[in-house]
């Protein structure tokens, strides 16, 4: 399906709002990293243990849902592109910002974390490739999400032709019929849980390092495929919207079970596997509940939707280094922790928005940060011409120099 062929009536606006909301949640999650007990680049002297279970629960479903939404966006972004055209677009939108970010955005973060070891940022660059983070200095930090999307894009590229075949449509139709039944998407649990319980025996930790993170790459790939195959169907989306309260109830039940293991330190045979399974059930159940509520309450257009939908990708790229720089400075002021939190949030947000505004004005920077180029119309003013030796005044042909926004969807 060609994204440009979508009409206003067909477009699922809630998917855009969901993507925007998820990226903004990443911003606040990283603000929280300064004040919770987990290790991070910069830390407040005063941390709060109550943030740990909240942020752990949020982390269970937030990123899987973002991969699911990316799968939906990829389905529509494919249009009628060939495999070669699709990969070219993915390289432009993902690989270029990833490489540029490794050499511009990430070093700032590592430098500030290890600032006592280097005389300047320039001195850090000399040692940038001295080992792998956290022991060494080289890392891609929050750009792992971009790298994993690129990796998934490469994995699915050989199957693009198949996704346009009659056989795929037949299989997809059967899966959609199953998914639209009452709590029909629960049939995905055996696939997700089974794959993870097997792979996590060999790759137990989420490293974001790609080469030794195969359990979690598979986990995110499954959510991406779920988005691509199922959540591009109105039938599935409408069914989830109708059953959203059931998915909330399912989320609450398994959240209580998960925290019971945590609080009471339940020790039973197979306990770690049961605990891991509850996390995976929460990841899907809560994601489905969020999709259902977004469909019901946010499936509408707004004048800011296009602006935010375009800005959200560079916002993601920029937000973490800005939070770390701003946080590092403000934490030196020895202010009350509540004031620190508010100041870091507001100043980081203003700087991120300001930098995005500057970037959006220059095509070279737009490409570097994963946006499409702005096109320009040239000015041609017809003053008149001669026909059969007589001057004939023509209507001026005015092509404005106004910057024209791209018509294609801005999806990560």
Kindly describe this structure.
Residues 1-9 and 378-408 have low confidence and may be disordered. The protein contains 15 helices and four strands. By secondary structure, the protein is mainly alpha-helical. The strands form two sheets. A two-stranded antiparallel ribbon has the order 1-4. The two termini are 18 Å apart. The protein has one domain (3-368). Strand 2 (385-387) and strand 3 form a beta hairpin. It has helices at residues 13-35, 51-78, 83-104, 106-113, 121-126, 144-156, 166-179, 188-199, 214-229, 234-242, 244-264, 271-298, 305-331, 337-359, 363-368, and strands at residues 375-376, 385-387, 390-392, 403-404.
Could you give the topology of this structure?
Blueprint: H1 13-35, H2 51-78, H3 83-104, H4 106-113, H5 121-126, H6 144-156, H7 166-179, H8 188-199, H9 214-229, H10 234-242, H11 244-264, H12 271-298, H13 305-331, H14 337-359, H15 363-368, E1 375-376, E2 385-387, E3 390-392, E4 403-404
Antiparallel strand pairs: 1-4, 2-3
Helix pairs in contact: 1-2, 1-12, 1-13, 2-9, 2-12, 3-6, 4-13, 8-9, 8-12, 10-12, 11-12, 13-14
Structural class: mainly alpha
The structural domain count equals: 1
- Shape call: globular
> Quick one: biggest sheet?
2 strands, antiparallel
What strand line-up does the widest sheet have? Answer: 1-4
Q: State the low-pLDDT regions, or none.
A: 1-9, 378-408
- Give average pLDDT, whole number: 89
What is the straight-line distance between the termini? 18 Å
Figure out the total of helices. Answer: 15
Count of DSSP strands: 4
Topology order in helix (H) and strand (E) letters? HHHHHHHHHHHHHHHEEEE
Percent range for β-strand residues: under 5%
As a whole number of angstroms, the C-alpha radius of gyration is 24 Å
Estimated helix fraction:
55-70%
